[in-house]
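Quick one: structure for this chain?
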Amino acid sequence: GPFRRRLPLTAIAVFPSWDVMGFAVHESTGITSLAQIARGKIPLCLSTGRIPKNELASSATMFTVSAVLKAAGFSLSQVRRWGGKIHEAPRPSDPSRRAAIEKGTVNAIFDEGIKSWGQTALDNGFRYLPVEGKVLKQLTSLGYRPAVLSNSHFKGLAEDIPTIDFSGWPMIVHADMPDEVAYALCEAIEKRRDLVPTDNYKPLDIAQLCANDEEAPYDVALHAGAKRFYRERGYLK
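Got it. Here's what it folds into:
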């Protein structure tokens, strides 16, 4: 993982945001697996996120992209050395990415925020590469959750694509935060729920913040103060 030791972290809430990591390549490349890229030293024209200049762990997205590629046997720097080019999008939904997909100036996209670019990629001749086998095993050992991209998410997918999950916006605090402070944070969220924007374009459902569902999964335990709040208010059974 990105840290040298396990950190004592807990969750106050996880705000809903369904997402998975997408590894898409244009059908014209003939690529059907991540391992094929490493074996063939294929010089991709790749659109991905902004690559941090210093610590890779400062970007959860790029740490994840790099972890997947490492498990598959290559890196972003190797793509460059093979003669490839990398387009760094400031955010997944950036208009420059859509333009690059539609104009054909990129032939691969590795990123999260798949709702903003995934259908456009499919509509322009891209396919999704599976994250499976030893690559998936390595990622799950780091704590990533397996996920599936299916035609219920995007039109034009011929089959389910195994990948890794990137869902939820967790509100994380140190485990030694006083219970009353954690409780008060939950109260503040509840009181201002109408002002909180959501990624699923629905009114914020406080019960979903502790539901551990597809849109809002959590990988660390709820803080004791937060758990008490959700139980006392009837959000957590």
